[in-house]
């Protein structure tokens, strides 16, 4: 099996070498096979082979479901592509065909299945979809079967095109407009940071970035390594920063600030982190062990970032979402169960102990304007302020165009501002119910009203950060909540945010 895999890898690598040297920059691909094989070859270690009649390609002699027509594509990481393949088979009543990608990094090959369709005997069927590649050394798109390892099939009318986003870098720059007041930021994920065109646009608009997911505990805790350490010391925890690194590298290289998200949270944190031996079936550890694990986690994050990215991370969400929506008390979680209600205070104590002096430490939460949560948040903040380890409060601001009322947002901001804390709007997006002019206008009006409120608090407001850039990549993409549409065109909401700064 190993030999087979290495044979395939060697074969694929040699093919991709030829294609890469031919194609410098991939701008799109369409083929109807009028000019022959057009770079396609049979992926097989057996007898599969390709033929063409000038309209379609046919693969015969297959003996494994991965045996396929494949072609090297010099795709650009982070760019969204739309692809479409017409396929037909005559050998089974029904067979599932699938477009997949094989990619390799440092000689290690991996695969993703991109789209599939059920094909009736003799009927041309379209398989289409979208693909935004992460960074690899090469990419092979191919058509395989899900089962049916030995049927023959045909492919034709192939198109792999960039989704045609034109990033308008001549747009007025939000970070420049808001420079007198506060930083303007956005959340990004790794596949976006590899997209040079997008990042050129992003760095024109924003001056602070947050990882959408890659700096959360479930990205950083190395469970297999932690298990090994736990044999000797249950308080030790092993971390890895491979996920967090691309965005950190980008910020460091381009002089962009980073807001760290997040050290301590009940969500996106493995349950095994709280258990003996990091074993999913182990008992929960005791309070003292967990406090030490938490301290070791926080210490190592700061050691790593201070050593490798000095000055890049200006602030951190130390604890996220600790207050329950109801009752004004802390949310029950592994943190409260294992450590107790002072876990938030201890997290801030450790963060202060290990953070560089200038790093601002935030508590971050959602639904801030809603009572009794607001009172619960204020009580927690008071206890943190009393211990002297907190600098600021982050309003997530995942809102809709009708709620919460701007007056409630202002009231919550005032209550927290009165405590003397720094403020930030950490994760803003405003959802709408449909993509039409009326809704887009309501959304824009709400963005404007809220930014006007943020501007009232400018002396304490460190940053306003959008939770994403374009609607299509938002975690709430069905609600079109951001300032730019799926083609990075500014929406009415963008104009409204510009307007709010100009009329200040
Ligand atoms: C979200 C991400 O956007 C999603 O991609 C992920 O699946 C879940 O988490 N509050 C937070 C953020 O503090 O970390 C969350 O981000 C959104 C709500």
Please explain how this structure is put together.
- This protein folds into 2 domains: 8-162, Jelly Rolls (Sandwich), CATH 2.60.120; 174-502, TIM Barrel (Alpha-Beta Barrel), CATH 3.20.20.80.
- The strands form 3 sheets. An 8-stranded parallel beta barrel has the order 12-13-14-15-16-17-19-20, surrounded by 5 helices.
- Helices cover 32% and strands 27% of the residues.
- The chain contains 14 helices and 20 strands.
- With 504 residues, it is of the alpha/beta class.
- The protein is globular.
- The structure holds (3S,4R)-3-hydroxy-2-oxopiperidin-4-yl beta-D-xylopyranoside (XIL).
- (3S,4R)-3-hydroxy-2-oxopiperidin-4-yl beta-D-xylopyranoside binds next to loops.
Set out the fold topology.
Elements: H1 2-22, E1 29-31, E2 41-43, E3 49-52, E4 57-60, E5 68-73, E6 81-88, E7 94-105, E8 108-120, E9 125-131, E10 138-145, E11 153-162, H2 174-177, E12 183-188, H3 190-193, H4 196-205, E13 208-211, H5 217-220, H6 223-232, H7 245-254, E14 257-265, H8 287-308, E15 313-320, H9 334-338, H10 343-354, E16 360-365, H11 373-387, E17 392-395, E18 398-400, H12 406-417, E19 422-431, H13 437-456, E20 461-466, H14 492-502
Parallel strand pairs: 12-13, 12-20, 13-14, 14-15, 15-16, 16-17, 17-19, 18-19, 19-20
Antiparallel strand pairs: 1-11, 2-5, 3-4, 4-11, 5-10, 6-9, 6-11, 7-8, 7-10
Helix pairs in contact: 8-10, 13-14
This protein binds (3S,4R)-3-hydroxy-2-oxopiperidin-4-yl beta-D-xylopyranoside (XIL).
């Amino acid at each position: 099996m190993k030999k087979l895999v290495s044979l395939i890898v060697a074969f694929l690598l040699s093919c991709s070498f030829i294609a890469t040297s031919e194609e410098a920059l991939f701008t799109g691909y369409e083929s109807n096979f009028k000019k022959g094989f057009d770079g396609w070859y049979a992926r097989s270690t057996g007898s599969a082979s390709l033929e063409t009649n000038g309209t379609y390609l046919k693969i015969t002699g297959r003996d494994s479901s991965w045996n396929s027509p494949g072609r090297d594509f010099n795709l650009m990481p982070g760019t969204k592509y739309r692809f479409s393949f017409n396929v037909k088979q005559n050998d089974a009543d029904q067979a599932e065909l699938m477009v997949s990608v094989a990619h390799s990094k440092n000689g290690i090959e991996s695969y993703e299945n991109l789209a599939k369709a059920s094909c009736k005997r003799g009927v041309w069927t379209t398989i289409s979809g979208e693909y935004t590649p992460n960074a690899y050394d090469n990419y092979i798109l191919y058509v395989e079967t899900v089962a049916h390892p030995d049927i023959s099939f045909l492919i034709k009318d192939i198109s792999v095109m960039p989704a045609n986003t034109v990033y308008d870098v001549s747009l007025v720059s939000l970070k420049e407009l808001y420079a007198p007041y506060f930083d303007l930021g956005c959340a990004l994920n790794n596949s976006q940071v590899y997209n040079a065109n997008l990042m050129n646009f992003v760095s024109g608009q924003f001056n602070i970035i947050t990882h959408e997911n890659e700096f959360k505990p479930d990205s950083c805790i190395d469970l297999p390594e932690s298990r090994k350490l736990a044999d000797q010391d249950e308080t030790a925890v092993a971390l890895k920063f491979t996920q967090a690194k691309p965005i950190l590298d980008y910020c460091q290289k381009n002089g962009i600030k980073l807001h760290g998200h997040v050290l301590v949270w009940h969500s996106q944190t493995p349950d095994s982190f709280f258990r003996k031996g990091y074993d999913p079936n182990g008992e929960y550890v005791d309070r003292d062990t967990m406090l030490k694990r938490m301290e070791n986690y926080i210490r190592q994050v700061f050691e790593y970032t201070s050593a490798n990215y000095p000055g890049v991370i200006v602030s951190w969400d130390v604890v996220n979402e600790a207050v329950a929506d109801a009752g004004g008390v802390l949310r029950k979680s592994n943190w409260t169960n294992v450590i107790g209600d002072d876990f938030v205070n201890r997290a801030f104590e450790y963060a202060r102990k290990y953070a560089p002096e200038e790093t601002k430490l935030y508590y971050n939460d959602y639904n801030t304007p809603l009572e009794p949560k607001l009172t619960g948040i204020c009580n927690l903040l008071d206890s943190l302020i009393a211990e002297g380890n907190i600098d600021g409060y982050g309003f997530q601001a995942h809102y809709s165009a009708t709620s919460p009322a701007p007056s409630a947002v202002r009231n919550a901001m005032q209550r927290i501002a009165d405590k003397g804390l720094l403020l930030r709007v950490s994760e803003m997006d405003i959802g709408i119910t449909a993509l039409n002019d009326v809704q887009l206008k309501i959304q824009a009006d709400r963005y404007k009203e809220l930014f006007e409120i943020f501007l009232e608090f400018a002396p304490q407001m460190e940053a306003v950060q959008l939770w994403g850039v374009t609607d299509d990549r938002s975690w709430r993409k069905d609600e079109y909540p951001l300032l730019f549409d799926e083609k990075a065109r500014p929406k009415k909401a963008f104009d409204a945010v510009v307007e709010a700064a100009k009329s200040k």
